[in-house]
From TrEMBL:
Source species of the chain: Streptomyces luteireticuli
Short name of one Pfam family: Acetyltransf_3
Name listed for the protein in its UniProt record: GNAT family N-acetyltransferase
SUPFAM superfamilies assigned: Acyl-CoA N-acyltransferases (Nat)
Origin: domain of life: Bacteria
InterPro entries listed in its UniProt record: Acyl_CoA_acyltransferase (IPR016181), GNAT_dom (IPR000182), Ribosomal_N-acetyltransferase (IPR051908)
Coiled-coil blocks: none
N-acetyltransferase domain boundaries: 15-172
């Protein structure tokens, strides 16, 4: 059995999900410095051009080559503008299960791009790669990501108490770490039969990105 995902691109009506390349570095740098993404991910802050280059050109390709998962740059079909990223990680090739995380650029929120991109990856994962389980973890106060999980048909399975470290603004404008519960969601192949991808209204800025590096 294969232990790595293929090096591919996935297309929807509005989006192209593809490997990152050097042209994505400026947009990735800008996106990852958004306050909501800083709050709900473990990405470095500030997120520098060097961080973006390292992520796009070293960390993301290594995720696939190592068998741990795969990382997609999500872009608009018409403009080629970077919408966000979708990442499969913590992949278990014996049980055919993996975890999905994502971020969405501030300008792209409210268009349903998060749902559309995650659903596209889920369909590819289940139908082409024959996986049996996709997991999503959202911080307890991250209602936007919880809405995405619900809209794509995920089932809430429970809470991991005190399992995540988010970040919150301080009075002086800095950041401080705060503990958070994580809600665990799952999506199975049969769950997709009832799903129709919503095209608008989903903010979905960030699901928990464990171990960003």
């Amino acid at each position: 059995m294969t232990s790595t995902f293929p090096d591919i691109s996935i297309s929807t009506d509005r989006l192209v999900l593809r490997p990152f390349d050097a042209t994505d570095v400026p947009a990735l740098t800008e996106m990852m410095n958004d306050e909501l993404i800083t709050a709900w991910t473990s990405a470095p802050h500030p997120f520098t051009t060097a961080d973006a280059r390292d992520w796009a050109l070293r960390t993301a390709p290594a995720e696939r080559l190592s068998g741990r998962g795969i990382v997609f740059a999500v872009t608009e079909f018409l403009t080629h503008r970077l919408v966000g990223t979708v990442r499969l990680h913590h992949t278990d090739w014996r049980t055919l299960s993996t975890e999905v995380a994502y971020v969405t650029a501030p300008w792209a929120r409210g268009e349903g791009y998060a749902c559309e991109s995650v659903l596209a990856v889920a369909r590819w994962l289940f139908r082409d790669q024959k996986f049996e389980r996709l997991e999503l973890r959202t911080a307890a106060d991250n209602t936007a990501s919880q809405q995405v999980a619900q809209k794509i048909g995920s089932i809430s399975e429970g809470v991991l108490r005190n399992a995540w470290i988010a970040r919150s603004r301080t009075e002086d404008g800095g950041w401080t770490d705060i503990r958070s519960d994580l809600i665990v969601w799952s999506l199975l192949p049969e769950d997709l039969d009832e799903v129709r991808a919503p095209q608008t209204g989903s903010t979905g800025y960030a699901a928990a990105f464990h171990s960003w590096r």
